[in-house]
Amino acid sequence: MDFALTDEQRMLEETLTRLVADQVSAEQRRAMLAAAPNRASALWRTFAELGLLHMPFSEDVGGLGGDGTDLMIIMQALGRGLVPEPYLAGLVLPGQLLAVTANSEQQTRWLAPLLEGEHQLALAWQEIGARYDAFTVATQATQQDDQWQLTGRKDVVLNLEAAAGTLVSARLANGKLGLFIVPADAPGTATHLYRTIDDQPAGDLTLESVTLPLTNCLSEDVSYVLAEVLAVGRAALCAQAIGAMEEACDQTLAYLKERKQFGVPLSTFQALQHRMVDMHLHLEQSRSMAILAATSLALPASERDYKIAAAKAYCGESARFIAEQAIQLHGAMGMTEECYVANYAKHLVMFDHYLGDSDYHLETVSELLTVA
């Protein structure tokens, strides 16, 4: 398979590499994480100016028409720098749903400002007990008196605090899955905010008879579209993990070359060389799977889901392996905040849990093979 980048894609890769290197050092990242999450950062505004917020969307909705490879290039660069901006959770996932389901008025209200960097959104799809299944939904939506009323709870909603609105999936009276946009200030909403292990802002959203106008319903049957958008998210996460795995490997190798024992660098010990080789084997095999996921987005649903589930499962296991090896090869200092590789290890461990862990996706692969 020929996976050569076009000239435009190489320029995108080089631009992003320089941008992340210049603006997301370890100290700058800590400052970003400490800043108020409900305020657009200078880096997010730079993303808007460079057109990165428009890239993953079709030209029909004001985007640049980027494909899975373009998204992979962006996410890999963000992963390599551990960029804390919610590009996936606050832009791609909710934006892709809006692009497909929203009418022109809803796009003007919610999607256009999103692409211009004027606000961010969130997607609330997970529920307690559902175990990563986006279609096991207990949240209820009922229509009465020309209004919608939502009741239920959504868990681990990434970017919830910074979102001007949250896209919420809810079960309708007819059994179908609907999609609604809930403004951040909607009466009846309650949030419990926290940080994930890798410092991502998240929260649980409780909906207590939240009343919405009819115009806040994006779709009364969103199942197919939601599956498609979650597939995009999983492919993007795989690419992001590749960037983080690359940097974890590079930092570990640099440490082994610098640190000495018995008067010689650790990198001269054959046992440690073998462990570095194992790390790079997992990285390169994961890179192939991430490329497979990125190039599978346009395939029929069953084939797409099979390949992306396989990629997410494999990348999840590799990410955990590389995280563990990076910590062990750094020794005790690898567990400290001062050792930057610890941040990559936390991110790689958590990557496996975002949008479904390895066990969940292996079950998906098994089910799809059985059907085939």
UniProtKB/TrEMBL annotation:
<comment type="similarity">
    <text>Belongs to the acyl-CoA dehydrogenase family.</text>
</comment>
<keyword id="KW-0274">FAD</keyword>
<dbReference type="InterPro" id="IPR036250">
    <property type="entry name" value="AcylCo_DH-like_C"/>
</dbReference>
<dbReference type="GO" id="GO:0050660">
    <property type="term" value="F:flavin adenine dinucleotide binding"/>
</dbReference>
<dbReference type="Pfam" id="PF02771">
    <property type="entry name" value="Acyl-CoA_dh_N"/>
</dbReference>
<dbReference type="GO" id="GO:0003995">
    <property type="term" value="F:acyl-CoA dehydrogenase activity"/>
</dbReference>
<dbReference type="InterPro" id="IPR013786">
    <property type="entry name" value="AcylCoA_DH/ox_N"/>
</dbReference>
<dbReference type="InterPro" id="IPR009100">
    <property type="entry name" value="AcylCoA_DH/oxidase_NM_dom_sf"/>
</dbReference>
<keyword id="KW-0285">Flavoprotein</keyword>
<feature type="domain" description="Acyl-CoA dehydrogenase/oxidase C-terminal">
    <location>
        <begin position="225"/>
        <end position="367"/>
    </location>
</feature>
<feature type="domain" description="Acyl-CoA dehydrogenase/oxidase N-terminal">
    <location>
        <begin position="6"/>
        <end position="118"/>
    </location>
</feature>
<protein>
    <submittedName>
        <fullName>Acyl-CoA dehydrogenase</fullName>
    </submittedName>
</protein>
<dbReference type="InterPro" id="IPR009075">
    <property type="entry name" value="AcylCo_DH/oxidase_C"/>
</dbReference>
<dbReference type="Pfam" id="PF00441">
    <property type="entry name" value="Acyl-CoA_dh_1"/>
</dbReference>
<keyword id="KW-0560">Oxidoreductase</keyword>
<dbReference type="InterPro" id="IPR046373">
    <property type="entry name" value="Acyl-CoA_Oxase/DH_mid-dom_sf"/>
</dbReference>
<dbReference type="InterPro" id="IPR037069">
    <property type="entry name" value="AcylCoA_DH/ox_N_sf"/>
</dbReference>
